[in-house]
Amino acid sequence: MNPTVLLSLIIFAPAIGALLLAFMDGRAVSLLRNFTLAITIITFALTLMLANQFNYGESGIQFEVVRNWIPSWNVYYRVGVDGISLPLVLLTTLVSMLAAVASWSINKLHKGYFILFLLLESGMLGVFLSLDFFLFYVFWEVMLLPMYFLIGIWGGPRKEYAAIKFFLFTLVGSVLMLIAMLMLYFTTGGQQHSFNLIELAKVAAGGSEHLTSGLTPKMQITAFVLLFIGFAIKIPAVPFHTWLPDAHVEAPTPISMILAGVLLKMGGYGIIRIAFPLCPYGAYCAAWFLVAIGVISIIYGAFAALAQTDFKRLVAYSSVSHMGYVLIGLAVWKIAEGQTVNPDMWNMGINGAMFQMLAHGISSSGMFFMVGVIYDRVHHRNLNEFGGLMGKMPVYSGLSVGIFFAGLGLPGMCGFIGEVFVVLSTWNFNPALAIVAASGVILTAGYILWALQRVYLGSEYKGPHAEEITPITPRESAVGYILLTLAILLGVFPGIVFSIMNGSVTELVDHMQAGYDHAATLLDQQLQAMR
Amino acid sequence: MVGETLIPTLLTIAWLLPLLGFAVEMLYGRKGERTTTKWPAWCAVACIGTGFLCSLIALLTWGQATGWAVLESHDLHGPDQHHSEDDPHHHGDSPKHQASTNESGWQMTALTATENSDDAEHVPFPSVYSGTLYTLGVFGSLVVSIDYYIDSLTLVMFTMVTLIATCIHLFAMGYMSDELTNEYVDHFAHTSDGKHVHRPGRFYRFFAYMSLFCFSMLGLVLAGNIFQVFVFWELVGICSYLLIGFYTERKSAGDAANKAFIMNRIGDFGFLIGLMVVWTWFGTFQFSELFDSLPRDATGHIVTNDLGEVAVSTHSGESRSIPYSLLVVAGLGVFAGCIGKSAQFPLQTWLPDAMEGPTPVSALVHSATMVAAGVYLVGRFYPMFVPEVLLTIAYIGAITLFLAATIAVVATDIKRVLAYSTISQLGYMMLGLGVFGWAAGLFHLITHAFFKSLMFLCSGSVIHGCHHEQEMPKMGGLMRKMPITAGTMLIGVIAISGLAVPGLIAFSGYHSKDAIVATALAFIQANPAHFLLFLLPLLTAGITAFYMFRLWFYTFFGEPRDQHIYDHAHESPWIMTAPLLVLAVFAAGCAIGGEKGMLYMMLLGSEPVHVANGVPAATVGELVLPGHSAIHDVHAKAGMWALLAAISGTLLAYVLYGTKTVNLSDMKRQLAGIHQFLSEKWYFDELYHALFMKPVHQVAALFAWIDRTMIDRVVHASAGLMVKISKWDRFFDETFVDGLVNLIARATFSSGILLKAVQTGRLRQYVMFIVVGVVALFAVLFTTFPN
Predict the structure, then answer these.
(1) Those residues with Cβ within 8 angstroms of residue B251's Cβ, 6 or more apart along the chain or in another chain
(2) What band does B33 get if pLDDT is binned at 50, 70 and 90?
(3) Nearest-CA neighbor of A469 among A362, A336, A375, A342?
(4) What's the gap in Å between the CA of A435 and the closest CA on chain B?
(5) Nearest chain B residue (CA) to A492
(6) How far apart are alpha carbons B547 and B560 in whole angstroms?
(7) ipTM of the predicted structure?
(8) Cα dihedral sign for A118, A121, A127, A131?
(9) Which DSSP string corresponds to B45-100?
(10) What's the DSSP call for residue B571?
(11) Are A485 and B277 spatial neighbours (Cβ–Cβ below 8 Å)?
(12) Exposed/middle/buried for B660, CB within 10 Å: 0-12, 13-18, 19+?
């Protein structure tokens, strides 16, 4: 298929599906389910086609499509894919597909649910594929609304609270992002203002032929901080994380899977796609701060997870902890005498961070799914009231233990590669932070093994509804097997993913150095002008 | 050369086969009748057995390829012995071979280090095969990959691991046969109503885990870079977790599994720090590149410049200065991992608890192979250790070996005695490596693997025969019921105690422990300040003999203490006793020839080059690391001391437990304080609970509290503020804005009401209004605009 059509099709296929769903009979539940599943499978297949046509040797944007949208404001429909977005696009369609399978457990207002579900998928894909800041922003908001309703209507007992908390946190981030976006828009000059992310990045490195920028290094720092807070809320980094446990606990299982599997990645993606390239100097100035926040998130999240008694809350806090590695890996950028110290290390850090996003997407959506499976049966999540499931549901327990091991960062599974590559690249940046980050491995083992022991091991099940415990169904085990297989595959052959990302990440590292050089020149000029 | 492709291929096959076995057993293990299906076990045995054959062929190929140079280079009687080296039975189970090695062994003159290095120059052979299997990631000049590194140490380890694993798999087939049922009754797991747990048997799963473990362990040995070691390090850890927790229904098993894994992770945290330093400063993980990168002068010192930095050439060709202190950090970091894995002080407490696993697991994982991996890694990474690190290793080893031995003296659970003995022996190995006895430490690793796995299997046989009774005070006199077990156990006990008639007969443990004690003596003669490093192992040699014979007398000797158990005890079936016999042969004879024998020579072939000559002190007060000749000089003396210690320990054990001359309970009462202290394992568990577990949970609760109250309070407060502002806004809206609007509306309305009166519907009246209106308008118009 023509790649230019393919990209737009990927973004809008779920939306078209949602539109078709609107004309269907809301009572034909199994039709709705199967139709949604079919749409997500088609979308996944399309992204596989995209991956197949993608040129792995090339580092820049591929399959770029540009159409006029709002010409008077220089807003374009501009989409494209590169080594950084492609893995996340694949992850999105994969997790959506599995979440569609998990959506069998939804038991009310099916039609509305599936329409919102598909709209959400469109929004997420749009975010990852947009190359126009305005378009990105629109998709960012598009994704927000379905999520709000999905939590607020199909959620648990405190769903309204959780939905509003989620919405408001994200909205605050959006507003900050909007301010930064307008800052960047109005300071670019030359031929005209621009929302083009690629050109804006080039401007920041002083290498654009079309645009000039009035953004001083100091303003860059402001813009970076605004963008960063916006994205940090999404990641979520401590202390902007408290929306996450509530949202996860209240959200229905498939939505938790998407929330953990994909939505959190948007924070990391935003940093690597927007905040870093557009404000390289700001990124450099904030690097230490970012790494420190990452380290705090790891430790804080792990400790908090250790104290939870709600199974789902524990998994939610493990997300906070695991996503800390992403922040660290992205930001281990050290400069001495104007040159990046050991750029290969930073390259490895970014690669590790990207890998960690994928790994977490697989392992944490798997963990949420596994929690959902048992919750559907016994309708509680109290860690102290489980036990003995290994005997009652052996296949389920085996799959769960496998997926939790992936979350624990066991070698040979995906979580290990991301974490350890990030940590290895951190010593170069700062030994003390590296050591604290590395100590997370102990706490992670602690909370995960302790949880496993309380849920799966032991002589008997201690909670209510013991009679409801039935073996895992083929539908459920299929999701588990797919995620577990992927976790092992990526853990054993991480090169598959690195080969996609490597070119783009190397380009980013070079770009950031150029951006720093550019800002340093500007600062020098300012200094001389003052004299 | 044929070996270059064949050896790595063979070892890779040996390594991957158990993984295949694991997959097959895990996926299809539930197929077939649960009560009779033994095929998963046979599958596991086939995999590991083939692995053994592959390793053996690889070993032979290596020998052929190198012309057995590793043996000949030190062998003054080369031609005499050559024919016997072609014999595939390396471990001396051929009588002819035994004789010839023994004979020539004792006649051989001392080998000095100069000869060693000279010969190495004359006979260049590819003693190391290394290469890359595939890459995990490439980042500019940084490459992380899966490699292999094969030298004689790798080959010996492979052969040892696969051989012992095969024996243990066979043994386990008998030991675990009570899992071949649909209704397994677990007598150690209770439900809340006090009944035993009934569950389907899990025969296949046991063998699946064992296969996974074998894969991980072999991967660890084959690893060609330190990162890969870490990968398999954690994998063996998780296998150990799964196997310790095999009886998932037992709370104690789950606790022990968690403890094992988490304590290992504490060590791995250090390991990770070591990895970070190596990665950041050397830019590579590969052994072959790392070992060449540290510059050493002719005496074996690491060359430092005036700033105390070491100039290394990294693999990419650039030169870099590394602070010496970072080398210490890297070494200590990696060693921290070894402390965790090999259950050294202060992370020793997990291993005794790990005895919750089935006994074959204890034999394979927790004595012969996995726990020895820490020792193996110290040996493997040896060229990177600076003297400060070596001294730490030695002291950790010395503390551990003494501490564990003292606890073993009072333990009454047969497996726990063996567990503490394992810790203690691992301490010996660490000590040996730390005092510059590279080959001695690893020698003991191999011999210990054989005799300790043998003893664990014997204890398994006893436990099986006594229907899961593990308390020694309930045993006694079992020699009559289970003669093979008792006999083979005695061989193991003699081997570990180091009893021998020098020059006539000596089991493996005698040779290897001698080598360590001799090195320690040479070390303290050169560094008298560290005399404890000799005193503790010497003393402990006696304690070892004491507690091992105590175990043997307690269990097999004398009169039965519990008639019920004794009456039902029986010798195990052949599938369990045959492995005992095989292992007993190796426990007795694997080190035949001592330090002139095959095994030691094989190991010596991989010794790092700077070890042979020793390292003299650069400045006064620095450590002197003894070379081969220095060790040889004190060998006879050290050996005599060690033997004396062992004999006195044995005699004491006989007097206390073999005869009835001493009232044991009286003695226990008199020594109640110390007995209590030792029984409580020096109170380490309590200490750690108070020092670490509790604080961690408190901090965790604190952080959760911060989340709930502090952060969310800010969020809620700002939300509340917003709501208040909105309410005020609403009030303003409703009272002022709306009030104004309403006022206007009300005015309009009331005027409308007023005007309603004039709306009468009478036409004439309307015309009147119009006329009046028009006139009024005109009047206004004319008065306002007069012109």
Answers:
(1) A457, A458, A459, B189
(2) low
(3) A375
(4) 7
(5) B136
(6) 19
(7) 0.93
(8) negative
(9) HHHHHHHHHHHHHHHHHHHHHTTTHHHHTT-TTHHHHHHHHTSS-TTS-SHHHHHH
(10) P
(11) no
(12) exposed
B504 pLDDT tier (thresholds 50, 70, 90): confident
Return d(Cα B185, Cα B586) in angstroms, integer: 36
What local confidence, expressed as pLDDT, does residue B620 receive? 65
Chain A residues in contact with B248 (beta carbon < 8 A):
390-391, 456-458
**What's residue B114's pLDDT?**
34
CA–CA distance, A265 with A88 (Å, rounded to integer): 8
Query: Could you tell me the two tokens for B23?
Result: 């997959």
d(CA B314, CA B329): 19
Concatenating the DSSP letter of every residue in A355-416 gives HHHHHHHHHHHHHHHHHHHHHHHHS--BGGG---HHHHSHHHHHHHHHHHHHHHT-TTSHHH
Find out whether B155 and B3 touch, Cβ atoms under 8 Å: no
Q: Which residue is listed with tokens 């429909």?
A: A77
Chain B contacts of A427, Cβ < 8 Å? 276-277, 279-280
Q: Give which of A158, A427, A484, A493 to mutate to test B binding, by max B Cβ within 10 Å.
A: A427
Burial class (CB in 10 A: 0-12, 13-18, 19+), B716: middle
String of DSSP letters for A183-200: HHHHHEEETS---BHHHH
CA neighbours closer than 13 Å in the CB half-sphere of residue A329: 28
Give bridge partners of residue B148 from the DSSP assignment.
Answer: B131, B223
Q: Are strands B319-323 and B309-313 parallel, antiparallel or unpaired?
A: antiparallel
Cβ atoms of residues B430 and B403 within 8 Å: no
Count residue pairs from A and B with Cβ separation < 8 A.
154
Provide the total of helices (H) and of strands (E) in chain A, helices listed first.
Answer: 21, 6
Tell me which of A457, A488, A507 to substitute to probe the interface with B (most B C-beta atoms closer than 10 Å): A457
Q: How many other C-beta atoms can be found within 10 angstroms of the C-beta atom of residue A59?
A: 18
* pLDDT tens string B486-495: 999 999 999 9
A51 by DSSP, 3-state: which?
helix
CB–CB of B707 and A245 under 8 A? yes
Which chain A residues are within 8 Å of B230, Cβ to Cβ? 411, 420
Residues 6+ away with beta carbon under 8 Å from B157: B221, B376, B446
Amino acid B317: pLDDT: 67
What is residue B92's predicted lDDT score, i.e. its pLDDT?
37
Provide the sign of the torsion angle of the four alpha carbons B534, B536, B538, B544, taken in this order. negative
Q: What is the C-alpha separation between A480 and A486, in angstroms, rounded?
A: 10
pLDDT digits over B70-114, tens only? 776 554 333 333 333 333 444 433 333 333 333 333 333 333 333
Confidence of residue A218 (pLDDT cuts 50, 70, 90): confident
Residue A303 pLDDT > 50: yes
Q: Omega into A239 within 30° of 0, i.e. cis?
A: yes
Chain B nearest-CA distance from A470, in A, is: 16
Residue B626 is predicted with a pLDDT of 86
For strands A188-190 and A211-213, give the pairing. antiparallel
Using CA atoms in the order B263, B264, B265, B268, what is the torsion angle rounded to 10 degrees? 130
- What one-letter code names the amino acid at B554? Y
Q: Say if residues B167 and A448 touch (Cβ distance below 8 Å).
A: no
Q: Does residue B346 have a cis peptide bond before it, meaning omega lies within 30 degrees of 0? A: yes
Say if residues A409 and A439 touch (Cβ distance below 8 Å): no
Residues in chain A with CB shorter than 8 Å from the CB of B699 are 303
- CB spacing of A412 vs B250 below 8 angstroms: no
Average pLDDT, integer, range B444-471? 90
